[in-house]
Amino acid sequence: MLKTAEVGVRGALRDRGYFKATATARLTPLWREGTDISVVVVISATPGPQYRTGDIRIESTDSRYPLAISPEILRGLIPLQRGELFSTERVRTGLENLGRVYGREGYVDMTAEPETQVDEERRTVDLVVKIDQQAQYRVGSIEFLGVESMTREKLIASLPKPREVFDSTKLNEFFKVNRAILPSDASRDDVSVRRDDKTRMVAISFDFRTCPPN
Predict the structure, then answer these.
(1) C-alpha–C-alpha distance, residues 15 and 89, integer Å
(2) Is 80 exceeded by the pLDDT of residue 98?
(3) 153 domain-assigned
(4) N or C: which end of the chain has fewer CB within 10 A?
């Protein structure tokens, strides 16, 4: 509980430009009666100086392999502008945006690593996001188990076709679009995505078979 409180306070401050904020929590018991206990939690925070956003750049981890998506486009996915209060929450949002965009282009193993550099004199934080985009995958095969052929044809229409780029975001949309014709308990747990590193293909399997009763 104390760690959760510390993280919550520290995070709230760092989302408001206090990039080096620290927080500690202390628990003091007031009384105990059997299994019941009353405590008071005191949280002490040291905000430190407030920082603003400096330069933000998007770079490939390996200069030999340029990014498949323009760094200028990727930069626009990070909701921070130069001069604004630096926010770690907005950085996280930007990294999530990058993951979704690369996922749509088949780069399902892409990783984005943020690196920060603090300028104490100017009270700014520069951000460099290093992207390792890995390999691009395409759809190899799609399999449905536990559905009738007519339903299968309707379901497959909402997915990328074989040989097309594997858009990983389509799997989330799949369940929303087809909710009316899917089994009531269908979920992402029913989906298996197997990668073939040699062919750069993925095999997608939907298993909607119900387990027989014991």
Answers:
(1) 6
(2) yes
(3) yes
(4) C
The verdict on 30 and 70 lying in the same domain is no
User: What's the whole-number mean pLDDT along residues 186-195?
Assistant: 91
The answer to whether position 212 is within a domain reads no
CA R_g for the chain: 24
- Domain CATH number, residue 111: 3.10.20.310
Q: CA angle, corner 133, sides to 172 and 106, nearest 5?
A: 35
Are 208 and 190 contacting, i.e. CB atoms less than 8 angstroms apart? yes
Name the band, by pLDDT with cuts 50, 70 and 90, for residue 214.
very low
Structural tokens at position 28 = 């003091």
Can you read off the two tokens belonging to residue 90? Answer: 């907005």
Instruction: Assess if residue 118 is contained within a domain.
Output: yes
* Confidence (pLDDT) at 183: 86
41/111 same-domain check: no
CB atoms within 10 A of CB 84: 12
Average pLDDT of the chain, as a whole number: 89
Tell me how far apart the alpha carbons of residues 113 and 73 are, in angstroms, rounded to a whole number.
17
Q: Average pLDDT in the 125-144 region?
A: 96
Nearest to 22 by CA among 40, 9, 35: 9
Kindly state whether residues 127 and 143 are assigned to the same domain. no
Instruction: Identify whether the C-beta of residue 58 lies closer than 8 Å to the C-beta of residue 75.
Output: yes
Does residue 68 lie within any of the structural domains? yes
The confidence score (pLDDT) of residue 212 equals 45
Q: By the 8 A CB rule, do 24 and 44 touch?
A: yes
Residue 16: give the domain boundaries: 2-46
Among 14, 31, 46, identify where a domain stops: 46
